Amino acid sequence: MNKNSIFKGWAALYYPILFGLYLYCLPVMARTPLPIPIPQQQNITGIVTDSQGVLTGVTISLKGKSTTTVTNYDGTYSLTANATDTLIFSFIGYKTLTVPIAGRTTVNVRLQEDATQLQEVKINAGYYSVKESERTGSIAKITSKDIEKQPVANVLATMQGRMAGVDVVQTTGVPGGGFDIRIRGLNSLRSTGNAPLYIIDGVPFASDAIGDAQTSSTLPTATSPLNSINPSTIESIEILKDADATAIYGSRGANGVVLITTKKGKAGKSQFTASASTGIGQVTRMLDLLHTEDYRAIRQQAFANDGITDYPYNAYDVNGTWDSTRYTDWQKELTGGTTTIKTLQAAVSGGSAQTHFLVSGNTYTQSTVFPGDFYYKKGGVHVSLDHESEDKRFKVVFSGSYDVQHNDQPAADLTRISRNLAPNAPALYDAEGNLNWENSSWENPLAALHAEALAKTNSLVANSTFSYQLPYNFTAKTSLGFTDLHHHESRTDPSSIYDPVYEAGPEYSAIFLTTTGRRSWIVEPQLNWQHNLGHGKIDVLFGGTFQNQLSDRLIQYGSGFTSNSLLYNLASASFSKTYYDDETVYRYQAFFGRVNLSWKDMYFVNLTGRRDGSSRFGPGKQFANFGAVGAAWLFSSANLLKEHLSLLSFGKLRGSYGVTGNDQIGDYQYLDTYQSSGNVYDGTVGLQPMRLFNPNFSWESNRKMEAAIELGFLGDRIFTTASWYRNRSSNQLIGMPLPATTGFTSLQSNLAATVQNTGLELTLRTVNVQKDAFGWTTSFNITVPKNKLIAFPGLEASTYRNQYVIGESINIQKLYHYTGINPQLGVYEFEDVNGDGILSFADDAQTFRDFSREYYGGLQNQLRYKRFQLDFLFQFVKQLNWNAASPYSAPGAFGNQPTSILGSWQQAGDSGPNQIYTTGLNSNAVNAYGRYANSDVAVSDASYVRLKNIAVSYDVPTTTIGLQCRLFLQAQNLLTLTSYKDGDPEFRSFNYLPPMRIISFGAEYKF
Question: Is 140 within a domain?
Answer without folding.
Answer: yes
